[in-house]
Amino acid sequence: MKTKMKTGAIVCFVLAALVMLVLLELGKNTLWGWALTAALFVGFCLLYPRISPKGLRLLAWLGLIVLFALVMKLTEPPYRPIPATEGKHPAVTGVVTVAQGDLTGLTNADGSVEVYAGIPYAKPPVGELRWREPQEPERWEGVRACDAFAPMSMQQRHSALYDTLYRLIGYHEFKPSLTDNFREPVSEDSLYLNIWKPAGKQEKLPVIFYIHGGSLMTGQPSYTDYNGEALARQGVIMITFGYRLGVFGYFAAEELAAESPNGTTGNYGLLDQIAALRWVHENIAAFGGDPDNITIAGESAGSSSVNAICVSPLSEGLFRRAIAESSGITAVKPYHTFRTMDKALEMGREIMAEQGAANIEELRAVPAEQLVQTRYSNDSMTVDGYAITEQPYLTYERGANHEEALLNGFNGHEADVFRLLQTVNPEQYPEAVRRLLGDETERFLALYPAADKKEATENFNTLLSVCWFAYSHHDWSRRLTEQGRPAYLYYFTKHNGAISDWHSGEMIYAYGNVWRVPANYGADDRALSDTMLAYWANFARTGDPNGPGLPLWQTAGEAPGEVLNFDSEVKMLEDPYLAVYDMVDDHQNTLR
Length: 592
Known about the structure:
Helix content is 38%, strand content 14%. The strands form three sheets. The chain has an eleven-stranded mixed sheet, with helices on both faces. Strands 1-2-5 form a three-stranded mixed sheet, with no helix packed on it. The protein has a two-stranded parallel ribbon with strand order 6-7. It is globular, with a radius of gyration of 26 Å. By secondary structure, it is of the alpha/beta class. The chain starts with a helix and ends with a helix. The chain contains 19 helices and 16 strands. Residues 1-5 have low confidence and may be disordered.
């Protein structure tokens, strides 16, 4: 009996040590956390055999857990800017002169790409500038070192442990390291942009201006899935940037509209995007870019933002083409990322009540760290009469949208990532469908019946994927085609070791970054990524993605009802959702 107890204790000690080590690594705790945990565990092991009576040993284990949790909390990773490039001693670029002053960046490891990170394109929207149109950035003296990404825009954050587990479980991404024990900072002061360009003197290069996604509530321009290094190697300048999110970017109030010289409220994040685009148009020649050959691009909410910029009178002449991945707002009543001004103002009043603010002056005084915790989701743009002057579909019907050509598309299982733990019972299924299709519900049920929970869940996820994402691109491409403008439509279905063809699964391919996660992507993934990257780069150059060695990608006008399928084999095929689009069309027409 005595031997068993000793063996059991040893097993418990080993398991406890392993759990602690795993949690420290997943939580990205500092080296102090490792040292304190080691001291705590050694001390516990030495004291444990001396604890008497033995009934107190359970309390000792509980004490160990409490003390370890305290160590985890006290040694959480600090906030530190993300370096512009990887490597210990990157070379500094030559001086570049923009309207606000001189700056330098860094070169990547092999010297082929220059990166300029954290360039201000507007004044920090803090204090009295919270919920005002973006202001021109201030000049600086001397040479500004643009060698690290600016903080991501203010948004709700989870612990580092939660974030790591989310990436591990959801994306199967995890690389043990003792050099990544820090977190990317967040701030209201986030209106900065980042530029990747081919090294050396360049002239008249095409430019991709990329808007990150995140439901207009989260996200950051430093995310590696759309790191611009690969595009720069293709001779394309890539730009990412931060813009105001959530309550800071899409809050609306009558008082704000009244104080605005333009009568606007509710679209501050969109106005930031347009301000960044204007800065790029005015300054990109200094980096070797062509201000008359800019393509705006984005994914998810970033794609909806691209659509909004296409219809905004403020962006006319600032870009030529658009790349849109997995979202749009051309429907008569968009399913997401768009709301009426009445709804926006109603939520604004609720937020003011929640924060106990009698007026905007008091709400501006609320600390950002408190305000960001609001329970209300400001995740939609609106018709404000300034940035967006009418429902977007009306602008397309008038032919007043700005994009000359469109590359856009959707993924095979877009909605699955949003419904990981949700199911639909056969009894719930008809009503769930009705909320999306209204009077067209019976037509959909006839095409997609549901005999059990599994089938009901899968079919509803399909409908949600169509309404939220695929239909946006069918409708957008159709509208461009009717205007005589080229629209190239894709359908991404590639499976891999990460999230496959769920929402956002195509990004890491299109921007050439699958090589960064070799455990999840194999040779066929790298080949597909090379193909997609070439299409994206060609489109940025000329408005036509096709080129030598690439499968022919026909426009929506040349091949009606067909899409280019991105999978292990790249080929044109029939869009699988044509019948559902007809139902959505009929439902949308009742909403005019």
